[in-house]
Amino acid sequence: MEKITSFTIDHTRLFPGVYVSRKDKVGAETVTTFDLRFTKPNTEPAMENAAMHTIEHLAATYLRNDEKWKERVLYFGPMGCRTGFYLLLKGDLESKDIQKLLISCFSFIGGFEGDIPGATAHDCGNFRDMNLPVAKWWSIKYLEEVLEKLSFENTHYPA
């Protein structure tokens, strides 16, 4: 089998960032897949499952309720390697196009208090696996170290 595109990225040279992973045509629409990388792969520790699960619930809820973007959000979810998340949006987009959205989203998570949306036995298959304090920590770290300082190096995959 052919190696899929995401396995051709040199993960030894990849830093936390907001990368365009791929663009796919679905009918007349373009779908842009973003790689929201929180950690430096194979160097920094992977994110904890419970924190990732919490971020998934909060970010998916936030993004699907954003007045400007909600009709374009197709998916938000974790990477299996636990170094970040994928965000799929309708449209032919670049990292800078979603910077304000992501700043708003991760600011929301960083300051979130209260019950995590969908964190009940009725709504989620593993609702007890949540860690809001660590999710907030990761969100603030990503906000301050990545989203507020986007540059060519953390928006374009290494050559």
UniProtKB/TrEMBL annotation:
Among the GO biological process terms of this entry, one is:
quorum sensing
Q: Which co-factor is required?
A: Fe cation
Q: Name one Pfam family in it.
A: LuxS
Its Enzyme Commission number(s) read 4.4.1.21
Question: Record's SUPFAM superfamilies?
Answer: LuxS/MPP-like metallohydrolase (SSF63411)
Q: What class of enzyme is it?
A: lyase
Q: Which reaction does it catalyse?
A: S-(5-deoxy-D-ribos-5-yl)-L-homocysteine = (S)-4,5-dihydroxypentane-2,3-dione + L-homocysteine
Tell me the residue numbers annotated for binding Fe cation: 53, 57, 124
Keyword annotations of the record:
Autoinducer synthesis, Iron, Lyase, Metal-binding, Quorum sensing
Q: Which GO terms describe its molecular function?
A: iron ion binding; S-ribosylhomocysteine lyase activity
Task: Tell me how the cofactor is bound.
Answer: Binds 1 Fe cation per subunit.
Similarity field: Belongs to the LuxS family.
NCBIfam families in UniProt: PRK02260.1-4
Entries under PANTHER family matching the protein? S-RIBOSYLHOMOCYSTEINE LYASE (PTHR35799)
Q: How does it assemble?
A: Homodimer.
Please describe what this protein does.
Involved in the synthesis of autoinducer 2 (AI-2) which is secreted by bacteria and is used to communicate both the cell density and the metabolic potential of the environment. The regulation of gene expression in response to changes in cell density is called quorum sensing. Catalyzes the transformation of S-ribosylhomocysteine (RHC) to homocysteine (HC) and 4,5-dihydroxy-2,3-pentadione (DPD).
This protein is called what?
Answer: S-ribosylhomocysteine lyase
What organism does the UniProt record list as the source? Oribacterium parvum ACB1
Gene behind the chain:
luxS
